[in-house]
Design goal:
Elements lengths: L6 E8 L13 H23 L4 E5 L8 H6 L15 H8 L12 H8 L4 E5 L14 H17 L6 E3 L10 H6 L4 E4 L14 H9 L24 E4 L2 E2 L8 H21 L2 E6 L8 H22 L2 E2 L2 H10 L1
Parallel strand pairs: 1-2, 1-8, 1-9, 2-3, 4-5, 5-6, 7-8
Helix pairs in contact: 1-9, 8-9
């Protein structure tokens, strides 16, 4: 049994269109999707405040800009040299351009200010340009410059970045020393199971098991406690995710039920046994069915408060967990 209480961590990959550019060209339906995403962020923040949920927001650095001119002034000296140009944010903009000077699909300084103004919300980074760290062609030095820009822009806005989430969960252990050098003390990693290596380039079998495990115990992820996290490394701590929240879908009523039941049951087990439970998603995942997704989120937060009262289940950001472990 863990000496620590059960820990509930939520991390959000806040990207808007920067996280989807290689597969979304911003047609009318997709613009509505991101408009819904923007409108829902203040609503989520109200929920997090109401349920005292401590949340890590891993923000793509380009979202800090107010306009195209600011974006141009922050251009790195080395554009990432991806062999596949379709995974480059810079190439997408070169081909399609921005949607106006203050493009709401690529800039969101107003929303970042709302996040900062809400209690117990950690500002983390999702790199500057949604940088793919396992793609062929890019280099360590290109990643370093990207991350330096992300950290600098956040600092100019008043946030000291301590946590990072690799875009598309492309965890690159060779880049941890770069993270350390710019002040990162914690990185979200994937669960220690074969089908959750990273999302990009997965086989059909890996995708099948990853999706199936969201609903039933196919080959369940082994629960961990904070004691299982290696605090003796001189690199940033690796804080593994546990579960991806999958958005409500109108065609899958049974799957919606089983998915939510799985999350709530895992939370209960974590609270009872002192496990660490890390739930994550992208804010834009709520874009197509916002009301139903919000209802599910509130059920999750209500369950957290119940477990908090019953078992001392504790909500912590990635940085709070890091501080707690380093102190111990």
């Amino acid at each position: 049994m863990s000496k620590h209480p059960g820990i509930f961590c939520i991390s959000l990959d806040f990207e808007l269109h920067w996280g989807c550019f290689e597969r979304m060209t911003l047609n009318e339906a997709e613009q509505t999707y991101f408009k819904n995403t923007r409108e829902l962020i203040p609503v989520k923040l109200d929920l997090f405040r109401a349920y005292d949920a401590h949340v890590t927001w891993a923000i793509v650095g380009m979202l800090y800009h107010h306009n195209v001119d600011e974006w141009k002034r922050s251009m790195p000296s080395q554009i990432p040299a991806f062999n596949n140009p379709k995974v480059s944010a810079y190439e997408w903009i070169k081909q399609y351009g921005f949607m106006g000077e203050t493009d709401p699909y690529h800039f969101a300084p107003d929303l970042i200010q709302k996040i900062k103004a809400t209690p117990h919300q950690e500002i983390a980074t999702h790199t500057y340009a949604h940088y793919f760290c396992l793609e062929e062609g890019q280099t360590r030095e290109q990643f370093r410059e990207d991350l330096e820009i992300a950290v600098r822009i956040a600092k100019e806005d008043g946030s000291d970045i301590k946590s990072l989430v690799f875009p598309r969960n492309q965890f690159n252990p060779d880049y941890l020393s770069v993270c350390k050098e710019v002040g990162i003390t914690a990185v979200r990693s994937s669960p220690n199971i074969w089908y959750w290596k990273y999302a990009t380039g997965s086989t059909f079998k890996e995708k099948f098991f990853r999706a199936g495990d969201a609903y039933i115990k196919m080959q369940p992820i082994k629960p961990i406690t904070l004691n299982d996290i290696d605090v003796h490394t001189n690199m940033p701590l690796l804080l593994p995710s546990t579960r991806l929240y999958r958005a409500w879908q109108p065609k899958y009523k049974i799957q919606n039920y089983f998915k939510l039941r799985r999350i709530l049951n895992e939370m209960t087990e974590a609270a009872r046994k002192g496990y660490y439970y890390h739930l994550w998603w992208h804010p834009h995942n709520f874009g197509y069915h916002p009301h139903e997704c919000l209802e599910e989120l509130e059920q999750i937060l209500e369950h957290y408060k119940k477990l908090s009262k019953q078992y001392g289940f504790k909500s912590m950001t990635m940085h709070e967990i890091t501080q707690h472990l380093r102190k111990d």
